[in-house]
């Protein structure tokens, strides 16, 4: 394992060209005190910085594979690159920032905390969302927020087909075009409280060049919440 | 025309095709315009363990003395990768059933019963409750497509993780919990509004195939520091391939659920027409494991219609390491008990027939979220009944194993079995009784 380097504060450093992901995660699960951690040469490795349970500030200098920051609690994880499938899946709290783009299922089932993607996100962004907030600076692919239950998905660009299919109570805000809405997802009125919410989420994501008033809101029509013979054509 | 003895009368002939059940279902469908949703497992007759017999010992084999000689029953699950594998005293575990589908006291009773005899229980689609963690010495935590109630704290509190791909009652289908069972607590645990019909996803949100599953399992191991075993549960369908892919993905154990396996709520057409009997699935799974050199390395846990110690012994003889019970465990707690017959009849059913687990009106207080009904089940007494039942299954399996000369249940083997029907012989891959013929494998002499 790499030797801690001393700057103004104690910063632990891992080089995944030398250290293993296992060593990194074990160290992050074992340390009594959180702090700043720098991860170099991630090389697209999977499961980097997963299961954190303390207010670490993890900076990953490059691209990561699947499930980076999976089930994150309390920690801030910043990826200076792109990430693979399922970034911040089932996140409980904390902050995950992707400076590049994200692959499929970004923020899947995330229950709390905030995921910010400065590039684009692929299909199923925010699938099964359960309370976290996701802000995407670019566009998202198809099936965004599929079966989303709680939380917000803010897309500054465009959304692909079947947005919000089988949606529950998650709120979706899209500034650009929407290729198509999924089953039981409808456009809803963008009232002042919603503009304020988008403004707040953009500010928290440190995105200051996008006007919250330009977004449109989508949510569940709640027509399919209970099985009924009259709804069969909608499934 | 009045009915004669036992309802029969000359001139009254029931159609084998349009029997009374078929006629009633057509009438119901015409009336309601939507499929029937119910609980329980497949009710149709399929080749099952009853179609197998043990040969027992005689001159060519010698038996163990029935009451005194040791016949061990322990099993260790998760020896492949986990630092802390699951060690059980008996190879009969309690299958995953959710809080939501079942009442809190019912989940507690399952934990008490399993713990008393040194076995494990399993959470379900809805997360882990503190009560079931407290009362289950060994608790398997399911990771389901819905991810209801999934959180890393419970993951770390678990003794094993079970990645649920499917279940025998509905391979390819997701869960269902109808609105009248969504109490405040259930709604909160699942992050959903109270009273809506919940449709659990049939696909996981963050992986889609065997290569992804391998990486998903790696993530779960990293989160739990490679401490606890990871099972993969599949419904019995393309079993040979599913087991091979689960092993390739890194599973410590494979849980294989046949079509007779129960459910809390699914379309009747799904329960009765999708998946294959557990009898047909076990040999496929074992073949897959043997070919990969992983039989007994990756443990095989089978379920779907296990009722007796004979079923347990036969499943193990076919190559399983352990079995899992769900429906039978609920019956042991008091489901379908005769003392509730009047209450069952009041809601259009009867003791011995009740399968409306989706309705939340269970007179036995098991498949309900109604507090008054749930209070009918005393979790201590229920746990004691379940422990009694599990002990009986174990004693029965030991009796049969000793008769076959086996000092451990795991020493039972296919060679100890014959089949009563050609179908069972072909599926279980054991000879038709009195012959050496295994259809599809060994030609008739």
Number of domains of chain B: 2
What's the total count of β strands of chain B? 16
Strand content range of chain B: 5-15%
- Principal-axis shape of chain B equals globular
Strand order of the largest sheet of chain B: 5-15-14-12-11-8-7-6
The best one-word shape of chain A is elongated
Runs of chain A with pLDDT <50, length 5+? Answer: none
Strand order of the largest sheet of chain A: 1-2-3-4-5-6-7-8-9-10-12-11
Number of helices of chain A: 2
Q: Determine the fraction of residues in helical runs of chain B and give it as a percent range.
A: 25-40%
What is the quaternary state of this protein? heterodimer
Write down the CATH class of the largest domain in chain B. Answer: Alpha Beta
Radius of gyration of CA atoms of chain A, rounded to a whole number: 19 Å
Radius of gyration of chain B, taken over Cα atoms and rounded to an integer in Å: 22 Å
Characterization of the model:
The complex is a heterodimer of chains A (235) and B (445). Chain A is mainly beta. Chain A has one domain: Pectate Lyase C-like, CATH 2.160.20. Helices cover 10% and strands 24% of the residues of chain A. Chain A is built from two helices and twelve strands. Chain A has a twelve-stranded mixed beta sheet with strand order 1-2-3-4-5-6-7-8-9-10-12-11, with helices on one face. The mean pLDDT of chain A is 94. Chain B is of the alpha/beta class. Chain B has two domains: 49-408, Aldolase class I (TIM Barrel); 413-445, no CATH class. Chain B is built from 15 helices and 16 strands. An eight-stranded parallel beta sheet of chain B has the order 5-15-14-12-11-8-7-6. In chain B, helix 2 (104-116) crosses helix 14 (379-403), helix 10 (309-317) packs across helix 14 (379-403) and helix 11 packs across helix 14 (379-403). The longest helix of chain B is centred in the C-terminal third of the chain and has 25 residues, at 379-403. The model of chain B has no long low-confidence stretch (mean pLDDT 94). The A-B interface holds A 21-22, 25-26, 29, 46-47, 50-51, 53, 65-67, 70-71, 73, 85-86, 89-90, 92, 104-105, 108-109, 111, 124, 127-128, 130-131, 146-147, 149-150, 166, 168-169, 225-229, 232 and B 32-34, 37, 146-147, 150-152, 155-156, 178-179, 190-193, 196-197, 199, 201, 205-207, 212, 215-216, 218-219, 222-226.
